[in-house]
Predict the structure.
Amino acid sequence: MKRLGLILFILAGMAFGYTAQAQTEISPERKRAIDSLAMEKIRDLGKYISIIGNKQTPFSEAKRVIDRTLELFVEDAQMGVSSLYKQEVTYYGIREYLERLMLLNYDKVKIEWFNIQYISDLELQPDGRYVGVITIFQRFEGTSDDGLIYKDVTKKDITVYVERKQTQIGGKLIGFWDVLLGDIRVVETTK
Amino acid sequence: MHKQILSTAIILLLVLSSYHINAQNMGDFKYDETELYAETKQVNQFFRRFNGEEDKHGERLYEKDKDFRTYKLRKKYVPMLFNLESGILADAAKEKFSEMVLDKEDPVYLDFHGGAWLCELQTIFTYKGVEDELTLFLVLQEEEVGSKWVIDGVYFEPFHKGLKNPDNSNFNDRKFLHPLSHELGFMNIFRVFNESDSLEYFGHKNFEPDYLSLFFYEIKNGSLRFNTVKDLKFHFFQIDGWYLELTYFNRDGLNSGWLISNLLEVDEKNRDILLNYIYHE
């Protein structure tokens, strides 16, 4: 069985992979600190989305906030959106997604968070960075000036890239963990 | 069946009883987060719950933690990880499987890097101007540094229709190149290409189409274009003697998210048959 053979071959090759991973393992304490940092960035994202989508926000300010939002992401990050009625994912670049949100021009945008999130383990990828996925649930409510309300509850699976970097402070090299957001999958929930 | 669902629901409520159920009040929108807590939100969480690596508050447990992989914790989680609204999951199989993986002397865990599991991904492509569903099979491959998902197979109906294996079960006395064709410098080979439908009769008896190469080729020459992803599920052969299918259930209630949607006891021979079936081989 050629397929299973491949899978077993992968299994046999694991020892090597584990050696490489063990060298850069992240302790549970470190993981918790990285999780907090990632959640902080995700909260910033929520805050920025509220500002961008709000009609009261002047155009120039909204553009500035879009630029700030993009700083949270790796280059070329995509938003993949699906609904209960359309399972196929529709892709938007993050800038495109934010600009569309700005043009929707809701009179009022309310984004509420549920007190539940799930933070995956961090997995080492071939380029040496770690990747994780944080799942959050949000309720979006947009009210237009004619009183129409659009609302949904979505599950957002947000990619998080974690990288060990160094910076020079006072002539000394200081290591730190940098966290950037990546692709986001948005699924409308039945809940 | 009903009894089974009821007992599992009771276990689930017991697990949740110590969890602070926070019903948020959002104007006219009251939300009980219990369902979100109960949902197995990621495949990663399925592994954690199956292995008993998540406590009753949803916190990640590590080896040094008291409850890490304990029988008590797993006994609560494992029954919740089945799709309880399924008619195809036999109670007897679930019980036998649970008993085996929860064995106190020799417990069985799932391992993300343990191989012998794969993803079946439904996608939409446009092939020669027509939109069509295409299935990709992906496996996790270990690298010198880290790991990555790689494409291990593809199922696309137009490929299968166009390149089906000829039925050689009956003696074929018409479609062949006669054994002295070489003496004519194979000038008669034009007959092979006259009828594209019977092309495979002129191939070696061991010919097997390589759909993955064809897939890559058709993308490279621009005939096949990716549109979007649609759905996915996972097949596990990691636990000796068993096959599990994992599917995402986006629904209300306490039994939602990534759940075991199919469970079969399979010996080695049947495992190969099942793998062939999954890969459409």
